[in-house]
Structure formats: structure tokens, C-alpha cells
## 1
Amino acid sequence: MYGTGMLKAFGVTLQNFLRKPATIQYPEERLPQHPRFRGQEFTWYEERCTGCASCAKYCPLGIIKIVTDPSGGNDQDGGTYKIEQFDIDQARCMYCGICVEACPYDALHMGTRFEAATFRRQDLLITIDDLRTRPKHPSAWFRPQLAREGFDPFTEIADWREVGRETYFWHPKRPEMVPEDLEQKASSDGEYKINEGNN
Amino acid sequence: MSLHTEPVVVNIGPHHPSTHGVFRMRVTFDGENVQDVEPVIGYLHRGTEKLAEERQYSQVITLTDRLDYVASMTNNQAYVLSCEKLIGVEVPDRGKYLRTIAAELQRIASHLVGVGFFLAELGGFGGTALMYCFRERERILDMFEMLCGARITVSFMRIGGVFQDAPDEFWPALRKFLDEMPRYSEELNKLIFESEIVQARAKNVSVISAEQAIDASMTGPVLRATGVPWDIREAAPYDAYDRVHFDVITASGGDNFDRFLVRMQEVEQSLRIIEQCYRDIENGPVRSTTSLLFRPPPGEAYVPVEAPKGELGFYLVSDGSIAPYRCKIRSPSFISLTLFKEMLVGWKLADIVVSLGSLDFNMGEVDR
Amino acid sequence: MGESLAENVVYRNVYEFAIGAFGSDLAWLAYAIATFSLVFLFVNVLMLLATFYTWAERRLLGRFTNRLGPNRAGPFGLLQALADAVKLLTKEDIVPRNADRWVFNIAPIVMLASVLMAMGVVPLGKNTFLADLNIGLLYLVAVSGLGSIAVLMAGYASANKFSTFGAMRAAAVLISYEIPLVMSLLAITILSGSMSLIDVVEAQSIPFLLVTPMGALIFLTAMSAELNRSPFDITEGESEIVAGYLTEYSGMKFGTFMLAEFAALIVSGAVFAVLFLQGWKWAFLPSHVWMLLKVGFFALLATWVRSTLPRLRPDQILSFAWKFLFPLSLINVLALSVQRLVFADDHGNLQQSDLWIMALSNWILTLFVIPILIRLTNRSSKISTERTIELQLGKGV
């Protein structure tokens, strides 16, 4: 042979032989996921959504389709559009989370699952009925108030009043969305400055 | 009486266990000696530059993740730095430190992949060193999940900083990683670099000189392995690199072994950088603007960063609208491939995959 | 007929049963039935051991790489070999259009046949052998050459450049490593005075591993090369030429090649145990169990080496054979011949005390010769063994 360097390699392999294997026996065991995990099956709060379609505008792939009925009337006075269709096409979604980041009313959240595979591609389309009826497990991605409260999105359900941020993003004409204890909750998670009209 | 022989053309095709992605080569062999190599690329072309022209500046970040899919943080960083120069946005300090930490972690992960595949292609069962490297990489990917919710296609950085602050459980995990990693890298050194078979296979094979490397616009570990101490983090620092001390690793051989050795040593330097960032980071905002819509003035910008594979840069041209007019990606892997014919001619079949691995290219970057 | 097998329990019982059933006029029929049943038993044991080794190797390789091996098919994954066999049997059998059909189809059969023929001489325990040839070692060498012919057939017959590469590499490697292998077997013959494997076991009052460590080392290395195992597995170097000579095979033909390769490993483990580890001779446990344990030790060693060492380049393999192993085997044969001349009595027998003295002198010789030879080899192929890293650390920021 060429020399003794190879014997050290044998030592390393032997050392690893005696170590506990690093295998996780899926599906009986699972790796722990972080609450910030960007998963499938979006969480949508109809009570907060106004139908502004910012999520659809900012999606890089254009998979969100929102059809609203503008004949509701008082949309300029702080009302909401009547949403007729809200489709998210999960087959082409890349789970980047920009839609969540863009929503000004904290109505759309990422989900937590990664096993939502179906047998047909058409079943991957999430319609508005799915969004309404599915249990609400919002991921803590881009929602620092959820993370700060120690919310565990894998087991707990969040109500629409608990998921709003306490910054300036609430609609000025929807006072019922402003939490009562605003002073306590209005801390800065990074001090978002009010942007100077870039929007 | 001499035997009449003919060189044979073998197609080492896109389906191969050892090309780094879908890469095709037409190699002309004389026995086992390589006479000519003709690369064929384009199997992973997805039109990133064209797609970038139709998306807003903040939406392009998700496209850049998928370029070099092994090292997506640095892709994000390169793009965001160019955007910030174009738009004129400052990044707060804590954002800079977080970016540096993320980029250095990504460098460690990418180099682990490169070194692991080095031994896999040498034939170390395709297991052993690869599995050990991936085990360490898993910890880094878990930390990325803590930071931004995804492991590979991270989209962590935004124009103006980082998208959100690191959670509280990130810092103990980082501390644990920093404490345990030196032991594992020492183990990898013993397994890989001190073994004589590896040295016999990789030393003095596919040697390139410094002049050849500079002529071919090589950057990154390939250039540093030929002896040229060029590192963009030191020459043109960005983010927090002007506040940390680290060494630029060079080696003088320019052969396969030196390229991998430089990568392994860079892992240790990255650990040093992360230590300093961990010590120096202070509280504060991580993002200077939460806007997602930007309308920069007409102009152009190019800020190169030191990606794990070389110099990566986005040349952005703006015409005043919300989407870039032109986004040209200077990817290091594409430029590395221009040199590999000179690297391979004259060597043997068994050296092809090792030399390709030592260039450490990624087809996502080459084809974009 | 079959007097050498008369002590074999299975043979004797079946023979007497057949004689009782057919009468002693048809003694040839009884002989045929008895030998057939013995052969049947041997072949099945070998095949079972080979399939068991596929499972064991995957589990062991998994543990060496810090993970579990197959553990889903049956308890601890024991039925994994069965699952693989079923999968291979149900695959489509593809023959390339330009392939040479006859040669393509026969190559796996030839490979398996060579292994099964080699099994004929190797004992698996006390009085458990198929034939006690007095040229047993020579027969083994001849039959293992047949295996290399099968590799060449497979590589030639698949009209695929990768297969041709694999076959040519196989030819080169197997030819180069025949000679050190034969010479280490020659050393054993010198020590034991006979080529029959049974006589070799009888002659080992101390294991020949202790008496001739050089011979054992040469045998292990040359046998690894003959079996196409790491670090010499360039013929099926998965990362370079996909699967070498096996590329075009699918279904059970591929399975036969794999089975033949693993069976060859078991057979060489048994040969190693017989030649160097005193075969079945140790106490406290039945002889078959000892043989199995020794074969298992060889298999463990082979798996450990496979998981640790990367493979060598073909020209390095050939230079290793010709520049290192060949002189080493010559030195080995020379040393043993000299020692035998000195120590053997008139009948050509060696006493146990003589063997101990030979062992001591051989170990000292090994510890001297091997470093010198390594240095000479490295100098001639310009390999430096120090870690020559000239890292210029930059000036820092």
C-alpha cells in the first residue's frame, strides 16, 4: 500500500460505525419543524380580507386568482369587496411567501404541511371553499407576533383576531380590527419605518 | 508491426451519476487518454434572465434562489446588493451582520457538498464522506429553516436588508454548530485529505497555471488554488466583511487536490467569520424598508459577491419601471466550464469526473 | 465410488438409503443420487450465504456511513434480498439490438458457473467437501480465470462503449493480479507440501496467517482485485462508466452477475479461512460454525475496506500490481523456500516449533521489507507521502 494515511481513514470509519445512526424513520418519526416553516395549504381569514388582491399582484408566478364583485357599494368607506373566487394553484406554487408578505391586512398566511400530495393535478387547486373550511394553522412566517407568543402552528388554531400585526397596516376605517390593548402590543419587531411613499 | 487504433467518441451523457446536474460531454478517447472534450450545455435552461424582465425587483429574488440551487443565500445576496446600489437603499447594521452570517453558513454548506462529492466521485463507495458531509449540512439547513422557513430555496434577503430577524432559538443552535463543527471538519480531513489513495488520484492532475486561470476569468477557489490571492470579500468588501478578520487561503499547485483543499480550509475561515459576527452583532432593525415595490431611476448597477463557486454578479439595467430592463447574470460556473477542456486533455477517463468535481460547477448556474 | 466422501454424513446416509432402495447392482445410481444431493446442498448453502451477504453488506455499509441499512422488508430488512430477487425477476429482459446475442446471454451463466465450480473444492467444515482434489489450489486458479472470461464476454457482447471500457479494464486488472495470487498460493503449497486444500488445513498446526503475513497480505489484496472490490473496482466504477460491463444487463441476468460476484466473495472468504486461518480446526464450536465465522470475518474486512478507500485509477492499479505486489510475492516465496530447506526433515514435514520460528522471522522480514518497497514504489511513481500543502494564508482584512 502507499502508506499510513489510509489507516487514519479506517479509524474514522470505525468511529462512525460505533455512532448512533443519523437516520430518521419516516413516517413513524419526523424531524421537528420550525414554526416559521413555509408549508402548503394556506390559511386565509375571511374576516380580515378586503379583496385588495395584493397577494395576486405580488405573486411571482401569478397563481392566485381573485375575482371580486365591485357592486357592493361602500368600498371607499372602508368596506370590503365581495369575493367570488379566490383560487390558489398549489401545483405551481413555489412557497416563496411573497403573497403573505404583501398582504396589508394579515389575512393570508402560509400553511404548515408538506405532505399534501394528491393523485390528480386538478386537486391541487385550492378554492375559496377550501380556504374557508380548513382549520386555521397559520405558519409563523413573517408574522412575528405569532412567533413571539409562542404559537405552535402544528397543533394550535388561531382566531382572526389573534393574527394581526400591531403596526400601521390596519385599515383606518375598520376600527374593529384595531386591538384594544394597542399600546402593549405596539412594540417594534424591527422598527418598520413608514415608507416614504414608495408605494 | 504497429496496430491500427482509432480514437473513439464516447458520449458521457446528461444521464450520468456523476456529472453535476444535466451536463453532457462528447469525449474523444484514445484508449483511456482523453484527446478532446466537447461540452454540451443547455439542458437546464429556464430563461431566468428573460423572466426577470417581467417581474418586479422584489419578485426576482425568488427567481435567483434557483440559479445555484446548492447555495441560494449568496445568489440572493448578489442580486439584492445590485438592487440596492441601483435603487439607493441603505442596509442597517444588524441586517448586514445577518446577511454575512447567512452567506458564510451557505458557503460552508456548499463546500461540504463539493468536498463530499469529491470523494463520491473518487469511488469512496459513494457513501462515507458524502454522508458525513451531508450530515453536517443538515444542521445548516435546519438553521436556515429557523431563519426563513425553507431549507434550500431560501428567499431570505430583501432589498433593504433581511426579510425578518432571526428567532430566539437560532442563536443557541448557531453556537452549538460553531462549537461542534471543528471536530467534524478535522474528521473529514483525516478521512479525505490524508489518505494516500486520494492524494495519488488527485495530486498533480489537471494542473492549471495562474496565467491560464486569469486568462479564462476564473475566480473563487479555482483561482486561489493556483496561487492568486484574489477574494472579493477582501478586495471589494460588501455587507459586514469590512469589519471581520479572515485569511484568504491560497495554494500553489493548481491541481485537483489543491482546489479541494482550499475549499476545506475556507470552511474553517467561514467558521471564524461567523464567530466574529456572532460576537459583534447588536440589536436593531434588520430591514430599512418593508416596501415590495420599487421604481428606481434609470441607470445600471453591478455588485459582485464572492459566492462559494466564484464571483457572482447581477448586472441590472433599469429604465425607470418597476421591473428590470435587463438582468444579466455573471455566473461563475459558466465561466469555469470554458477552462475545462484544457484541464482534461491529456488525462485519463478516471480523471474526468474528478476534475469536473473540482471545478464544482452547478448546472443551475451554467444554464440559468 | 466416492471413497473420499465416505465420511460425509449426508453422503453416507443418502448412499445407504439409495442402495437399500435400488439394490447394490445399481451402485452407480446410488452414487449419482448421493453426490447430487450433496452438490444440491452445497450450491444452496452457497447461494443462501451469498444472498445473506448482500443484506449484511448493505447493513454494514449503512452503519459505516452513519445510517441504517435496509430495514423495511421484513424484520431488520432480512427479506430485502428476496424483495430484490422478485424485483429482478419481474423486470423486462432487454437485449440491445447490436449485441451479440449468444455471448450476451451466456456471459452471466459462465460467471455463475465459475463460482460454483470453485465451490467444488472448498471445504465448509470437517469432512464437508465435494471433492478432495490433490491439485485443489491449481484448480481454483484455473476456475477463477473463467470468471474473468465471463466479464470480457459481457463487455464485448453489449454494444456499448462504457461496457467495452469496463471489460478492457477488467482484463487488464485480472491479468495483472493473477500472478501475485498464484504466487501466494505457491507459498502456501511450499509450506504445506501439497496442493489439496484438506492437506493444507491439516498441515496448519499454527495458522499460516502468523507464519506468512506477507502471503496473507498479498492474498487479500490480489483477491480484492480479482473480485472487483474497492479499492480496485474500476470495472464497475459507478461514478465513471456507470456500471461498466453490466450496463446493458437488466432483470435476472443482472441478478445473476451480482449473485455470482457475491458468491465469489463467499468462496474466497472460505479459501482464505482454509489457507490462512486453520480452516475448521478450532475448539469449542462445531467446525461448520467456525468456518462461517471466518468467512464472516473476511466479509466484514472486505466491507470495511470498501467503505473507506476510494478507488484507484487503472494505471495506478497496474503499477501497484507489478511494482509492489509482484516483488513482494517473489520475496515471500524466496523466504519460505529458504526456510523450508533449512527446517524440513527428511520426509518434508515441518514441526510446530519450526513453524513458530518461521513465523517470527517472517514477521520481522515483513516489517522491514514493506516500508522499503513502499518507498521504492512511491519514488518510481512520484507520489509523495507527506502532506505537502503550501497554504499561503493571505494578509487578512
Note: The longest helix of chain A spans residues 5-17.
## 2
Amino acid sequence: MADENPAPPPAPPGDGGKPPAPAPAPPKPAAPAAAKPAAPPKPKGPVATDASAHPVVARLKEALPDAVLSAKEFVGQVTVEVPAARIVDVCRHLKEREAFTYLVDLTAVDWKERQPRFDVVYWLHSFEKNNERIRLRTGVADAEACPSVSGVWLAANWMEREVFDLFGIVFSGHPDLRRILTWAGFQGHPLRKDFPVEGIDTGAAIYPDRYPDGGGPSPDDSNRKVVS
Amino acid sequence: MSDERPGTVAQVSEAGPPMLGLREMELNFGPQHPSTHGVLRLVLKVDGERIVSARPDIGYLHRGTEKLFETETYPMVVPHTDRLDYVAAATNNHAYCLAVEKILGLELPKKAQYIRVLLDELQRISSHVLWLATAAIDLGAITPFFYTFRDREVILDLFEDYCGARLTLNCMKIGGVPDDLPPGWVERVRAFAEPLVARFDEYEDLLTENRIWKQRTIGIGILTAEQCIEWGVTGPPLRGAGVKWDIRRAIPYECYPELDFEIPTYPNADTYDRYLVRMAELRQSRRIVLQCCDWLLKNPDGEIRAKAPRVIKPVAGDVYAAVEAPKGELGFYLVSNGGNKPYRLRVRPPSFINLQALPEMAKGHLVSDLVAIIGTIDIVLGEVDR
């Protein structure tokens, strides 16, 4: 968690302003040299730029110096990378000092092979600051708890329950962390990349005597099968 | 957790201190209940007729839409978005397309923008009149149902003539709209929208000063502006609490800055004011529809699609785009890893987030008022459960 440098395969969004590799690579121009006379590598789309000078980010850095790992601007949206341990402090600061009173959205992204595996993403809105919005992102490893912000915004309650249900990220300090879209007793977390799209045989209908109503085989149970 | 198995119709809770010398009773409201607008289950704790606490239990309609998004290429995602809020498919299409266009950096031709806004506003009218019909029928007023469906039918016919579908429209494409308008369509929309204001007056005659309607809605389900913001509630509930905030004006998209319309607000934050907000929004939507029709009649020629790449492969990055859906802020958070499918596509569903405030609104009211409160949030379970 301390080391937050995401290097492995699926490049996380907006990490260092580089667009994906397939831009004209330097070794190639040997053969069709005449066709493209040293065209500057034109980015295929918008490029992320550094946003540490953004006033909100600068003030956040001043108030909580160790809480800002990086700040990027991509298509006009500012994303601040925050260590998971400081997320509640950062949210409190932004809500109370910077008037980001409205938590628009809270969700997660699974980067299966990366360490830490998950990104938890917060999207905040300020009514007072001319509808300014800012995104926070924090890396959370598998089986690691992320501090809950449901004490900062009440709205985070169900959003965190949903992330817990679909990704299996535990939010420490959440008042009522239960599954919300799948049922109590469901095994697995559907939005993880290693969960099959076809779904799993929960076994509830086939082995009613072995598994409690609404439950199903645990991940290491030999009766658990992928449906397709 | 084992105490909340579905199927227990009513049970007396042994736990908890008795109130007024009586025991609190736990009562299941739904999932199969005519006024829950779908499969919503509420576990109520009641003291006599009064609600001590209400706990929503959702997920009956969960179809794993966000998982499915990850398996489809970008253009193939659009029809899936129809099935979120299935009574307002146009705005769902719109929000998704906006997110992809934002990351691609596409600028839409003016005509496509006007067609999109026209479809959005027709959809808003149809969604709001459907809300009016069902919310009124929940409270025993059956007449508005027949009146409003008359208008909704015309709108659905117009949609059918434009894109072939009545509910799951699939009426927007990344970079524009799929088809040009059929000949004579704009004139028909105009002929429908022009006298619509008389219809709205008719609905208001039925309800606005209706004694029963007022008694059932005034002071019911109060959610103040501070509470709305704290719970993330947007859309008519927020404007019914006096906050003049609408994505169409706050974070403008498409041609909304060029259009002349107002954001109606009412101060009392109760069910009645939310009703008034929706009625006023109907009138504003009609104004926007007329302006779009006039523009399209004046500018019949023009591109309807931007130059979108044949294979859509956005650069790696993440982007969020939102529209003002009839229910509130509908947003799509798109994470791309440079491939031709979304790596992760999250829906910010207004129904789901507005529903979260229901226990707050229901506390202390009678069980019969709960029906009014569920109606006033205007949820669609397809969007709540996704």
C-alpha cells in the first residue's frame, strides 16, 4: 500500500500522461521511410496532464502533506491519487474546508494482476464552487480493508455496500456492511475479473438439503461449477 | 441475516423495547406489492400504524448489467443501457454516449445535438406523465392514469416512427444518432407538443387543488435540502427542496445552453412540492421540445453523426459523464484500458441513490403514507438493481 507505483500489465487509467503504446514506434520507419517523413507521434486522443497546481489539490497538499500521491487531469477531470489509510481525512477535508458536500459516486475497479489489485474511486461535487468536481482514487489490495467514508457522507452507505457485494472489498467502520444486490449467503463477487460472466451454479436449487436456502457451494467446494 | 428470509409474511419481533406498552411488529411490504413499482421489498418495523423504521431490500432484478458491459464492444453497449431505467431509455443512451464521446474527444454536429435533446425531452415528458399516473393511482386517484396514458401513447408512437421501438429505444449512437428524422416527423411532434399545455392544465385540474390529493401529500415524506445533499439525492426531490440545480444548466451538455428554459423549484421538500416540480418540468420540457422542433424545421439539412472511428478504441483513461435523467443525475463512469471493450463501466443510477433516503423519509409516517413516499421518489427497479 505504501508503494503505489502501478507498473504491471493493464496500465491503470491516466498513469503518467502516456497514451497506449501502439503509436508509431521508432524502430519501424526503416521500410516505408518515404511514406511518413518523421511525423510527430500524434496522440490518438486526450492526454493526461499533471494537475498538482490545481488550487483544490494544492490546498489539500498543504493541509495533509502525505495524503496526495499524484494529481492528474484527463479530459478536464481532475483525479487525485490518495493512500487508502488517509482517505477519510482527505474526504473530511474536502467536505468541510472545500465544500464538496455531495458525494456523486463511489465505485471500484478491479485490475486483476496489479498490486494493489483494486482502485476505489470517489467522485465529489461542490455546489458552492461553481459545480466543480474532483475524483479521488485509492489503491486497495485484495483482502485489505478500505476505511469507510459513510461517516462523512451518508450517501456512501449503499455505494460501499454495493462495492463490498460486487468486488468483495471490506470497508472498515461501515455501520451495516451487508450484501445489497446479491442475496445473503451468495458466494463470490460478480464484478471481479475472475468471476465468470456466465455466472456460477449456486447449488441452491440442486442441493437444497446440503446448502441452506439462498446459499451455495463455497469457492473450494467440488460441487461448484461454472454454468456454461 | 437469517431473520430476513423472504416468505415470512409478518412476524412479531421479540426484541426491542415495547413502545406505548405494545410490541413493535415487523412487517414485510413487498416484494410483490402493487405499489412498490416493481420488486422492491421493505422490512417495516411498525408500532400500530406508525412506521418506526423501514429497511429496503433490493436486488430482485439484478441482471449483472455492469458485468455484461465489459463483454461487449463500445457500440454494442448502447442497447444494454435501454434496460436500466426502462421507462426513460433515451436519457440512458445519451449518458453512455456522452461518456464515450468525451474520452474520444468527439464534437457532435448541431443537428445531432438537437435531435438528441428533442428525444430526451419527449422522454422526460413520457416518464413524468407515467410517474404522475402511477403515483396518483397509488393514492386512489385512478382517473389521471387514463388521461396521461393518452399522451404517453402518442410519444411512444413518435418514438416508434423514429427508431422502431417504443420502450427500449436504442436511439443514439456514439457520435450522433443512428438515423435522420423521417419526413414529416418534426411537424407531427410540433402538432403534438403545441396543444400539450392544455393537457397539463387538465392534469393539474384533477390534482393540484384536489382536497384528497393535498391531504395525502402535503407534509408527507419531508427531505430537506441539506438531507438531500447528504444522501446524494438529485432530480425532482432536490428541486422540490428548493435547490435550483439541474445538470442541464449546472454542467451543460449538447445544445442546452442555447435553449431557453427554467429550472422550477418549490420550497417545502414534501411529496406535494415534488409533484409540483414535476408538473412544472413537464411545461419546461414542452418548451424545449418546441424550440428544438423550430430549430430542426429551420435547419433540415446537416450531418447527424460526427466522424467517429470505425472501430472505437479510446485511449487508456477514465471519464465520467452525466445527464439530467427524469429521475435525477444519471452518470456513466468509464474506465478504458485502450481496448475495444469498456474495461469497467459503472452506472451512477439516480433511482438507487434516491431510494437510499427512503427510510429517512418514511420514519414516523403511517403505513398508508409509505405508498405515497415510494411513489414520490420515482424509482424504476431496473435501474436500482441493474
Note: Chain B touches chain A through 49 residues (CB under 8 Å).
